[in-house]
Structure formats: structure tokens, C-alpha cells
Design goal:
The complex is a heterotrimer. Chain B is mainly α. Chain B has one domain (about 1-130, about 145-295): ABC transporter involved in vitamin B12 uptake, BtuC (Orthogonal Bundle). Chain B has 13 helices and 4 strands. Chain B has helices at about 1-5, 10-35, 40-60, 65-85, 90-115, 140-145, 150-170, 170-180, 185-190, 195-220, 230-240, 245-270, 275-305, and strands at about 120, 130, 150, 225. The relative contact order of chain B is 0.19. By secondary structure, chain C is mainly alpha-helical. The chains are: A alpha/beta, B mainly alpha, C mainly alpha. Chains B and C meet through helix 4, helix 5, helix 9, helix 11 and helix 13 of B and helix 5, helix 6, helix 11 and helix 13 of C.
């Protein structure tokens, strides 16, 4: 791939992309969020047409690629969000687009045979007749890999495959990848986790702000050099943890039961507390009930049993409005659907929680001037760009959009800040500032409940850590005592605290 | 006994007979629904089909040609929707209502300007879809009452339900269309042309919708009346919701509406005001829809509840 | 070109295409398109009667399009305004005939309040079904229109019948003033304008309106921010219904003076049409309503002056809406990427 260009609207996602892959290697593509690495690979897979440049696959030049031609050229991609239809079975998903036929019908028997061959070859554990909705994330990822193999791929692209896995599951994946390499498959591994890259790759290519920065052999480099290539400067995300005075309990969750989207994300009998002046981190693989827990605490999901007590007041199943009035602030995990109204302006988003209060409205009428003044203050204080209060938030980048959410919630004050995946999908600069804001909030004496899929984030920010698995708490540790290995074990976990299986 | 006069063997046929146009309409909606497109335009496609069938049958004297042209007419209307929705990104509900209004207006206009009629158009020259007369049944009371003298399209609808069930769940096209409807990206990454699949679904839906209209004007009756579909298309859409776009369940939903309609018609003979009889199928549709959706939701809540362990 | 200009151009282009298509059809009929359209315009404006008829025609469309838009702002596709007009009409007729114990002006107010109340309750049904049971409001409201029509038909053929051969009610005791006799233009027009302005302020200048738009654009975010999407959605449906009810009351008290069976046929649909053409823009909808009213009231004139049947006008408006729904202007070339990043 040479001189690749791609623009989305006014954003130039890839300016000058370059990438070359040798047969039988594992080649990592790294860069921070928004550097264009996923976009590069999606262009290669034909998910969108590229605006400029050339792609050569096994000596053949392409100026236009669709997923179909990509598949025919032997390219397969495991997307960050799995491309699996939840309502269909594993087998149906695998054969989709390449269905063996018998007369008018699909020949499921033949399909099963072919697929089983690959499953056996790589010793993977897959249940073909379950629906996708019923299987775990790790298994779904293996389904994706099998799917690609049955389509005859020689080039396999994996987009941040370890983001959803525990360290142990990741190791399992690496074994599979090594086997694939031995069979002569070429692998592109997209990630921003440097330790993994050093473990698995043969060569590493770096992208920064849509531009190709260079390729190095793993043997000739180290993590620090890669970090500098990625970011362009030295970055120390591990901000120094400050101890602040631990105060009264602000949040108490007692024997909480709540519904879940999946069986493993149902919360069944969960208790913990958060005290003023501390950050409690909730670690766990995505989908083990963290989202449901947060929704239950913040009034967005019905509590089926148990109690949530905020600053001495029982807030169980109160309306969101009442819960917020009791002093809860919330940075939700999904800023696009929960955190922001993308069609509303920055100003309107900043006041949407305090809408009914003066000075933003009076006798039911909106006070546009007050809204504008307030918005401009916050835009300046939190460095939101572009700094135009009347601009719809759909024009903002991930980092700036997240800053709008953080600005609104932090300015509210209150007793407890619930922050769920606060730095997901934002650039390094924004990560730094959001993390230091969380520290400030804690120093001001609020309790902070932090949920994050990034172990490194949990470990660098939290005072105490709770580990969740299957909707239950499998471990409680002080941050000083925690190490990644141990957290990983608890996340997969075997063992629930208190003895019960 | 009044009761036995309302509930007798001929009720089975009259239920089926009134349900048939709605079944066709519901199938029309179900096909696009599998591709995640809500076919609000069913009503319009059907009405246009109904008109074309009558007009062609009247002009050529051939019911078969009428049915064929009706299907092509339905296809045309459906393609207007498809192009507008898929190429020019119009809201599907908006364009659906648009083609419905267009169908009402254009059929009225063509009736005025082309056939020089207004309101109702009945003429002996309109050749209806023939009925299938089975001589062997003549002597058998029940079979004769119930199954004899169905029109061809009434028999065909049963076949169509089975064909669509087979297509959706047993064939490659069906698997692909369901993948497109439930997660277009997954289909796209499997090398399937999502847009083309959606066009195909709407086109086939148009053909079925046209057939629905043809059956209504040439099978169910032998005339054209302005706006004769009378919300049957929407009842079809409701039945499609009821059946979750599954052809067999969808058809069962339609039979229920047909049943209330037939009961109503019989009640009229016992002094129930005609307006109340006429509104019965609409109310029944809404009730059934509400109850079925409420049940679905309750089941969903139960599935998600932490207090219950799912199997 | 900014979004607003694009939208305006889109409407104008659609209008031109629709009128053009109409002209072609007229020409195929062997008539002159210019003559037909001139006759149409003359039919809508020439003389007190014609102008008055046009104005009387605009009145309900202003309200029904507004009602549809209010519901749309909250995220509903409310096809049931027509049913609300029917029920509003029958309630206004009932109060107008029977509540003569009230002094005249109060009785009129009672007619309106009654119409609004019943229509809003009627419109609440699909709102509740949608919110609590996830029943498509599109289907539900359309079917409910038929139910409303049959209910009113039943009432005016039975208990409320004036005993005439046509199904209609007795005359109401109070009327809105008709100011352009012999046409039926009446003070209801001003009521409609006041309601329109009131709703504009409500939607864009109050916190209620903010919440309404909030749930219409992103209910999950609204819920998170402390707005109850269920309550707001149902309120919006009820508000839309009550606006439809006002339209019904105006028709009965201002235009007919009694409840005429099936009088609202097409009023809701045409209002919805106006709303869809301008993509639910409250400020443009009155213009579109006016345009449609002109077409409708001029159609008769066209039919009399030429041999073109007046049903052509409905076809033109339908073609207009089909084109207006599409995004004809702008980034057509840019292919839609299904997977375009949402961050």
C-alpha cells in the first residue's frame, strides 16, 4: 500500500499511508487512537473506497477494492466490533457469503465438515449450533478467525484483538497467531499496547495523525522508541497518584440484583462502597456486568433487588433526575448515544442536566444568553475545540466530544462521580487531561467510581480495585497490591470471593 | 340458535377469504422487513396493483394479463421507493406515505382520465380470476362448503407462504437477506452487496404487493373502487409485526383479522350497527398488535432479569 | 451552499419537477399546460369567494401539519392526526349543540377545550402503546384513523343525527365569524396562526420544547440527563392530538356549522404531506400548507376551464412529496459508507 489517502467529510483520516507485508510474518501496525491505522486496514479490506494511492497484493495492482475483491485476493479481517449477526448461528455466520449449495438449499452438512476441519487444525473451541448472542467474546473472536480461514485468507488483519480479552486469553490468541504464521499466513496486528507488540510481532509499522512514520524490525527496537514514534514526544501516562483524605462513605451498594443484556452480565447480589476522596476502579472484561452495574446505580436500569445508597440517602429506583439531585454525576461509557446529543450544540449539551435551573431557564423559558455565557466559560476552561458554543457536537472529534461530557459532569460538583470508560477512543492529549481531571475530582473530596477495560488505567488511577466476572465480584484489592497478572486471573476467574463457585 | 348461525363451517372459508388480501399484503411487508426495511408503502403498492389489474383485465379481457401487469405496476411503485430510500436517502416512512398518497391520487386520476369513470368501476367486461371448481367435492358437504370454488389466487397464497418460508430459512438468498437486515456490516464484510440485496428485496416485495392488489380487485371482487385497499396494506404491516416477519406466523395473524371481520359481517344481520362492524377488524388489529408486542416485551424483560436463570 | 439553502433548493426543485410532471400529463391530455395552470391559479385567488375558499383551506392544513411536526420533533411518525380532527370535530359539535346553558363565547371556548381534551386522549393511546409495548405508532395511528371515522359516522347517523338523509349532526348554536362571505373563511384562520406561533415559541424557546427535541433526537441521552423520555413522548403525542382537535373544532364551528360525516377526509393526510415536504421544518410548513391549499382550491377552476380532472392536483402533490423526500441536492456523488466511523 502506497500513498494512501482517505477523507471523511472534512476530516483527513489517512494522509499518506504506506504499508508492506511479507509472507509468513506478523506485522504490527501501531499508533494512537485516530492515527488512521484501522482506517488503513479497512481501506485494504474495501470497507470504503480510498481516495488516492495504490494497493498491490501479490504482484497485482488494485485501484479499487470491495470486500469481495479483498476476500478473493486472500485478505481477511477481524474487526474491532465483530462482524457477526447475533441472531444467526455460529455456522450460519461462518458460511455467510460463501454458502455451499445443494440444489436450492444450503448444504449445511458440507459446511459443517469444512468448518470442523479448520477447528480441528487449530485446536479451537467453538460450538457451531449456538447463536452468536449466546457465546462469549473470546469464542466470538475465534469464530471470526475460523470464518476468515474458511474463506481461504492468506492475509489476516486483526484490529485491536486483545482489547476485549484478558491477559490469559490474549496469550491463547497469540498461540493461535503463531500457529497461523507457521502455516505461512501473513498477519497484520493492529494495537496500541506496546508490550503485546513486542511479544508477538516480527516487524512494526507506526502511524501518526494519518501519516506513515516508518517500519522497524522488532529485534532492533524497544518500547520507548516505539512510543516516541507513535506520539512524537515522550509521554508519561502514569501520572503520579496522589493520596487524599478518605472521608465518609458516599456510595453504598447492598446486595444489588439487576437485569442484564446477556446471562453473564446480569448482576446478582453485589455489594461494595465508595468513600469520599478515593477512586474505586472496577476491572473486568467488557460485558461482565459493568455496564449494567453503572446503569443500575445511575437510575438507567431497574434495580430488581437490593439497595443503592448515595450519601446516606436511599436512591434505589428513583428517577434519574432525583438521583442527580442527590449528588450523582456520571460520565457514561458511550458518549454518542448516552453522553451527548450529537445534533444539539455544545452549549445545549453543557446545560442539558441543569436545564430547569436558573440561570438557564426561568418560568419554563430558556435563557439563551446565560447558556452561551456558561458554555463559553467551560469551553475555555476545558480547552474544547473548536471553541464555538453554537456548533453541533457532531462536528467534534472523539476527544473534544468527551471533554464536553467531562466538563458538564465535573462542573456539577456533587458527591459521587461515576466514570465509565472515560478515555475510550480519545487521543493521548485528551487521555492525559481527563485522567488528571479525575484526580482533581477526587482531591476535591468526591468519591469516584471508575470503570475501565484498560487495566493500565485502572491501576494507575485507583486507590482500591474491584474485579468483576459474570456479574459478580471476584476480587477486591488495594491498588498497591495489585499486579496485572493477578487481575487477569480474577477477571477470567475462576473463583468468586466468599467461597461460592 | 343464533350462535350456530354465526359459527358454522362456512365461517372457515369466509375467514380465509377476507384474510387472503391481507396475507398477500403482509407477505409484501415481510419480505422487505427481513432486510430491515419497513414497507409502509405496502398500501400504495397494493392499491396501484388493484387498479392496474382491473384496467388491464377490462381492456384486454384477460385476467392473467391483468395480474401480470398489476405485479409489474407494484414493482414500479416499489422501485420508486427503493431508489428514493436507497439512493437518495429519504426516510422510509416518509417515502412510504408518499407512494401511498401517490397511489391514491394516480389511480383516481387514471380512473377519471383514462377509463372515464369515477368512484366505483364495475363492468361486465372485467374478467375476474377464475375459481377452482373441484367436482369430486360436490357431494361432500363440508369439503364442498369449505374448499370448493376458491379462486386461483386463494390457493396460491398458501403456496406463497410456504415458498417464502423456504426462501427465508433454507436458501442462500434467505440467509443473506436476513444477515443484511440484522447486521448489514457483517454481510458487507462477507462480500455481499448490501444495497443490491435491499433492492432485490424491495423489488420482490413490489411484485407480491402488486399481486395482493390484483387479488383484491380481481379475485376477492371484480371491480375497482377508489382507495379500495382501505388500510388493508397497513393491517398487513401490523400482521407482519405480529409474526415477526416470519411468513407462517404472519399469515396466522392475518387469519385472525379475517376472523373478526367475518364474525362482524354475520353480527350485522342481528342489528349491530354497520359502522361498529366495520371498525371491528381495525380495533382487533390494534389489540392483537398491542398484546403480541407486550408479550414479546415481557418475555424479553424476563430473559434479562437477574432473578431468573435463563436456560 | 449551507444546509438551509440546500433544503430550500431541494423543495423548489421538487416543486418544479412535480409541476413539470403535471404539465406533461396535461399536455398528453391534449390541453395546454399554461392554460391549465393559469386556470388553477385563477381558481384559487380570483374573487372573494375563491380567495376565501383558499384561506379556509389553509386553516386546517396549518394545524394538521403543525401537529404532525410536533410529534415528529419528539421522534414519532404520527399518521393519526386525521382521527384527532374527526374526534375534535364531533366533540365540538356535541358541545356546540348541547351546552347552550353557557354564554356564547364561553361555549366556543368549551367546544375548543373539549375537542382538545378528547383528541389528546385519543392520541395518547398510540403514544402509550409505543412507549410501553413498542407498538409501531405508524401502523397504530393509521388504523385508528379508520376507527375514528367509523365512530363519528356511527354517532352522526345515530344519536347525533339531524335526521337528514345525509349523515350529519344538527346545527351548532355558536359559530366562528365568517369574514369573507360567501366563502367559508373564518376567524379560525387567526386561531390557527396564533396556535402556530405559540407552538413555535414552545418548541424553540422553552425548557419543555428543549426536552421535546431532546427525546426526538436522542432519547438515551435525554434519559441520562434526567428527562423522562416516556413522559415527554406521550406529552408530545397528546399535544399533537390536541392541535388536531383544534383543527376539527374550527372546521365544525367555522366552516360547516355542523358535523358533516367524513368532513376531515384528507385534512390530516395533506397536513402530513406538507410536514414531510419540508422535512418537519415548522417555519416552512405554513408556506407548503398554503401551496397545497392553493392547488386544492384551484383544482375545481382548472377542471371547469379545461378537461383536466381535478384529481390531477392530488397526483401533483403526491409527486411533489416523493421528490421532496429525497435528498436531490448535494452530496449524491459521495457514496454512503455503511461503516463510516461514528466517533
Amino acid at each position: 500500500m502506497e500513498g494512501i489517502k482517505k477523507t471523511f467529510g472534512s476530516v483527513q483520516a489517512v494522509k499518506n499511508g504506506e504499508f508492506n507485508l511479507k509472507k509468513g510474518e506478523i506485522h504490527s501496525l501501531i499508533g494512537e487512537n485516530g492515527a488512521g491505522k484501522s482506517t488503513m486496514m479497512k481501506l485494504l479490506y474495501g470497507m470504503y473506497p480510498f481516495d488516492g494511492g495504490t494497493v498491490t497484493i501479490e504482484g497485482k495492482k488494485y485501484d479499487h477494492i470491495s470486500p469481495k475483491t479483498a476476500i478473493e485476493a486472500g485478505i481477511g479481517m477481524v474487526h474491532q466490533e465483530f462482524m457477526l449477526v447475533k441472531e444467526l448461528t455460529v455456522l450460519e455466520n461462518i458460511i455467510l457469503g460463501f454458502e455451499p449449495k445443494k440444489g436450492l438449499t444450503i448444504d449445511f452438512a458440507a459446511a459443517r465438515k469444512t468448518v470442523q476441519k479448520y477447528i480441528d487444525q487449530y485446536n479451537m473451541d467453538i460450538q457451531l449450533d449456538k447463536k452468536i448472542a449466546q457465546i462469549s467474546v473470546g469464542e466470538a473472536q475465534r469464530v471470526e478467525i475460523i470464518k476468515i480461514l474458511t474463506r481461504g485468507a492468506n492475509i489476516i488483519i486483526l484490529d485491536e484483538p486483545t482489547a476485549v480479552l484478558t491477559p490469559q486469553e490474549s496469550r491463547r490468541l497469540f498461540e493461535i497467531l503463531n500457529n497461523l504464521r507457521e502455516d505461512g499466513k501473513s498477519i497484520v496486528f493492529i494495537s496500541h499496547k506496546l508490550n503485546e507488540i513486542m511479544e508477538i510481532s516480527d516487524r512494526v509499522s507506526v502511524m501518526r495523525q494519518g501519516t506513515y512514520m516508518g517500519t522497524v524490525n522488532k529485534a532492533d527496537t524497544n518500547e520507548n522508541e516505539l512510543a516516541r514514534m507513535m506520539i512524537g514526544r515522550d509521554v508519561f501516562l502514569n501520572i503520579e497518584k496522589k493520596k487524599s483524605d478518605i472521608g465518609e462513605t458516599v456510595l453504598q451498594v447492598e446486595d444489588l440484583w439487576t437485569s442484564g443484556e446477556k446471562e453473564i452480565s446480569k448482576i446478582r447480589g453485589l455489594s461494595f462502597d465508595v468513600k469520599a476522596g478515593e477512586i474505586v476502579g472496577v476491572a473486568g472484561i467488557d460485558g461482565n456486568g459493568q455496564s449494567e452495574l453503572i446503569e443500575a446505580i445511575t437510575g438507567l436500569r431497574k434495580v430488581e433487588k437490593g439497595k443503592v445508597i448515595l450519601d446516606g440517602k436511599d436512591i434505589t429506583n428513583l428517577s434519574v433526575k432525583k438521583i442527580r439531585e442527590a449528588g450523582l454525576t456520571h460520565i457514561p461509557e458511550d458518549r454518542n448515544t448516552r453522553g451527548l446529543n450529537r445534533q444539539f450544540s455544545i452549549g445545549d449539551n453543557l446545560i442539558e442536566v441543569t436545564l430547569d435551573k436558573e440561570p438557564f431557564s426561568k418560568n419554563g423559558f430558556l435563557k439563551k444568553d446565560a447558556v452561551k455565557k456558561f458554555a463559553e466559560e467551560l469551553i475555555e476552561k476545558f480547552d474544547i475545540r473548536p471553541a464555538r458554543a453554537e456548533l453541533p457536537t457532531s462536528y467534534l472529534s472523539g476527544g473534544n466530544a468527551q471533554k464536553v461530557v467531562v466538563a458538564r459532569e465535573v462542573t456539577l460538583g456533587g458527591k459521587l462521580l461515576v466514570a465509565s470508560q472515560p478515555t475510550r477512543g480519545v487521543d493521548i492529549g485528551a487521555i492525559e487531561s481527563i485522567r488528571s481531571i479525575l484526580q482533581d475530582v477526587k482531591e476535591k473530596g468526591l468519591g469516584v467510581l471508575l470503570v475501565s477495560a484498560e487495566l493500565e488505567e485502572i491501576m494507575s488511577l485507583s486507590d482500591r480495585i474491584i474485579v468483576m466476572h459474570n456479574g459478580k465480584i471476584t476480587g477486591r484489592l488495594n491498588a498497591e497490591d495489585a499486579d496485572e497478572e493477578q487481575l487477569g486471573m480474577l477477571m477470567m476467574s475462576g473463583k468468586e470471593e466468599g467461597g461460592e463457585a | 340458535m343464533t350462535f350456530s348461525k354465526i359459527f358454522n363451517a362456512s365461517l372457515i372459508y369466509s375467514t380465509f377469504r377476507t384474510a387472503t388480501p391481507i396475507i398477500y399484503a403482509a407477505l409484501c411487508a415481510a419480505i422487505t422487513q427481513q432486510a430491515d426495511i419497513l414497507n409502509i408503502g405496502t398500501e400504495g403498492i397494493m392499491l396501484f396493483g388493484a387498479f392496474m389489474a382491473v384496467a388491464v383485465s377490462y381492456l384486454t379481457g384477460s385476467w392473467a394479463l391483468g395480474v401480470l401487469v398489476a405485479m409489474l405496476g407494484g414493482l414500479c411503485i416499489a422501485m420508486v421507493m427503493a431508489v428514493s430510500h436507497l439512493k437518495f436517502r429519504s426516510d422510509i416512512c416518509a417515502i412510504g406515505m408518499g407512494v401511498n398518497m401517490f397511489a391514491v391520487a394516480i389511480t383516481k386520476f387514471l380512473l377519471n382520465a383514462w377509463l372515464k369513470q369515477s368512484g366505483t368501476f364495475a363492468d361486465p367486461k372485467i374478467i375476474a380470476i377464475p375459481k377452482v371448481h373441484i367436482k369430486a367435492f360436490e357431494k361432500m358437504g363440508f369439503l364442498n362448503d369449505t374448499f370448493n370454488d376458491w379462486t386461483i389466487t386463494e390457493w396460491f397464497v398458501i403456496l406463497l407462504v410456504i415458498i417464502l418460508w423456504f426462501v427465508f430459512y433454507k436458501t442462500v438468498w434467505g440467509l443473506r437477506i436476513r444477515a443484511v437486515g440484522r447486521m448489514a456490516q457483517a454481510a458487507q464484510t462477507a462480500g455481499i452487496n448490501v444495497n443490491s440485496m435491499k433492492y432485490q428485496a424491495i423489488a420482490i416485495s413490489g411484485l407480491v404487493g402488486g399481486l395482493a392488489g390484483a387479488h383484491l380487485s380481481l379475485g376477492y371482487s371484480a371491480m375497482f373502487v377508489e382507495n379500495m385497499t382501505n388500510a388493508r396494506g397497513f393491517m398487513g404491516v401490523a400482521a407482519m409485526y405480529f409474526g415477526g416477519a416470519h411468513p407462517i406466523f404472519t399469515a396466522l395473524g392475518c387469519l385472525f383479522f379475517g376472523f373478526t371481520d367475518s364474525i362482524g359481517a354475520r353480527l350485522q344481520a342481528y342489528g349491530v350497527p354497520s359502522q361498529l362492524v366495520l371498525l371491528m377488524p381495525y380495533v382487533a388489529t390494534i389489540l392483537v398488535l398491542a398484546i403480541s408486542m407486550a408479550t414479546k416485551k415481557a418475555m424479553e424483560n424476563k430473559r434479562k432479569s437477574s432473578l431468573i436463570t435463563a436456560a | 451552499m449551507n444546509e438551509k439553502q440546500k433544503a430550500a433548493l431541494n423543495i423548489l426543485l421538487s416543486m418544479a419537477l412535480a409541476l413539470g410532471a403535471g404539465a406533461v400529463v396535461v399536455a398528453l391530455q391534449g390541453e395546454s399546460p399554461v392554460e391549465a395552470y393559469t386556470a388553477l391559479v385563477r381558481g384559487a385567488f380570483n374573487g372573494k369567494l375563491k380567495l376565501g375558499t383558499t384561506l379556509a383551506g389553509v386553516t386546517p392544513l396549518l394545524l394538521t401539519s403543525l401537529a404532525f411536526i410536533v410529534a415528529a420533533k419528539a421522534g414519532a411518525f404520527h399518521c393519526g392526526i386525521e382521527g384527532c380532527v374527526f374526534l375534535g370535530g364531533i366533540v365540538a359539535a356535541y358541545i356546540g349543540i348541547n351546552w347552550t346553558f353557557l354564554p356564547g363565547p364561553l361555549q366556543i371556548v368549551a367546544c375548543f377545550l373539549g375537542a382538545m381534551l378528547v383528541a389528546s386522549l385519543w392520541s395518547m393511546i398510540p403514544g402509550v402503546l409505543r412507549i410501553y409495548f413498542n407498538v409501531s405508532e405508524v401502523c397504530c395511528t393509521i388504523l385508528m384513523n379508520s376507527v375514528a371515522l367509523y365512530i363519528t359516522n356511527y354517532l352522526v347517523s345515530g344519536v347525533m343525527s339531524a335526521g337528514t338523509s345525509l349523515p350529519q349532526s344538527a346545527d351548532v348554536a355558536v359559530r366562528l365569524t365568517q369574514f369573507m362571505k360567501p366563502s367559508s373563511a373564518n376567524t379560525g384562520l387567526f386561531i390557527a396562526i396564533i396556535v402556530t406561533v405559540f407552538i413555535m415559541i414552545l418548541v424553540y424557546r422553552t425548557s419543555f420544547g428543549f426536552k421535546l427535541r431532546q427525546i426526538g433526537t436522542n432519547p438515551a441521552n435525554a434519559e441520562y440527563a434526567g428527562t423522562d423520555p416516556k413522559k415527554m413522548f406521550i406529552s408530545a403525542m397528546m399535544l399533537a392530538g390536541s392541535i388536531g382537535g383544534i383543527a376539527g373544532a374550527i372546521e365544525v364551528l367555522g366552516v360547516h356549522g355542523f358535523f358533516l360525516n367524513n368532513f376531515a377526509s384528507g385534512l390530516g393526510t395533506n397536513g402530513m404531506l406538507a410536514a414531510l415536504i419540508c422535512k418537519n421544518n415548522m417555519f416552512v410548513a405554513p408556506l407548503i400548507s398554503f401551496f397545497i391549499a392553493v392547488l386544492k382550491s384551484g383544482a375545481m377552476g382548472m377542471q371547469q376551464a379545461t378537461s383536466v380532472p381535478k384529481s390531477l392536483v392530488d397526483t401533483i402533490t403526491a409527486v411533489f412529496i416523493i421528490f421532496a423526500c429525497m435528498n436531490l441536492i448535494g452530496d449524491i456523488k459521495k457514496k454512503r459508507d455503511i461503516t463510516e466511523g461514528r466517533n
